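S1.2 Input.
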Amino acid sequence: MPFKETVSSWSRIAVDSALEYDTPKVVHIKSKKVGFINRLIQIGVIVYVVVWAIILQKGYQEKDEVVSAVTTKLKGVAYTNITGNPNLSIEDVGPYNRIWDPVDYVIPPMMDNAFFVMTNMVITPEQTRGVCAEDPFMVNVNCEDDPNVCRKGQPVVNGNGIETGNCVTYTYPDGRTTKTCEIEAWCPVEYDVPPLEDEAILVDAQHFTVLIKNSVSYPKFNFEKRNIAESDNKTYLTTCKYNSVTDPFCPVFRLRDIIKETNEDFNTIAYQGGVIAIFVNWDCNLDKSWDACRPKYSFRRLDNKNAKIAKGYNFRFGKFYVKNHTEYRTLTKAYGILFEVIVTGTAGKFNFIPLTTNLGAGLALLSIATVMCDIITFYILKKGNYYKSKKYLYVENADGDEYNKFTDEPLPPVSMNAAALTSGQPNLIDPM
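S1.3 Output.
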């Protein structure tokens, strides 16, 4: 077939397909099986729309997301004394035997939607700039067998200073010695081992309390509220403690109770540190009274307690001072618990527009019943081809044809004999 004819043929087919029209046709099928399936699917769709989408999911309400602000205030005082530890000398325990108040263990004093409580620490007092032996736990600084390991001017990888090129003696807290590279740094360097084994210095932090003040608003509904009820007074706030059963709305939390809600052991997490989330949920139905909108608290540990390396949570900070015209610092490696306060919530209030939208979407889902029944009727039942032939009717173009006014069927073309009759000529064919 010539190329032009092929293109013309395909073009004609494409145009004919594009200009076809499908009109709905109703076919009543007397089948109890198909009828039962149809009603079952329709009932299922109606139940889903009414019960789930409208009632349970409150599809009749307009929604708004919470806007929140959080502040915290910690209280609690503890005294630590580790003098009786046989592995530590009097000089070692000096920095740890002291009183601790919120200024000491809340670092930094203010954070956005979070607070950190120091529960364990490694303290290196009276550091000053100078030269000293590097920590033997650092990589490539042990020079006892090879003094040439030390390279002048090279920083120690993940270490404390810059190598001077000398190999010097390092003395452990228990009196043992070894040879390490000399460095220029803040000296003496930190001995990165907690003073107590498997026990936090500030284990009494479990008795500390935190007041969480949370203000929320839903701008779309002009709604504002705090987690501290207006009926609460100062006496209530100083005496109440949060309890998920007896007092679930008290905004004062004991740290031990928070950790208990996460199914963790306080001493374990206090020793190596961790991250805890405090969830404050404000899901409110504003069709009810203002007082019915109350927060719900929940707790979860966020860091991986089973991590093989870099477990827990810690960081270092220094306190600087000058003595005899020389600058000193006290270096503290702080282990502790970082509490993240996460506020979530959605408020809903009746509105006619979402109600009609959900109802309209539900009515559209009823077409699923028709589609499912067509599939079952045409492709699963034994007489599927018979039903399909009754549903689909193909009609050719009949523009210009004359139709019988009684049957709506197109009339056959007028024959020569019929034309002769209309023109007054004799009929040449017997009409019978």
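S1.4 Remarks. The longest strand covers residues 114-133.
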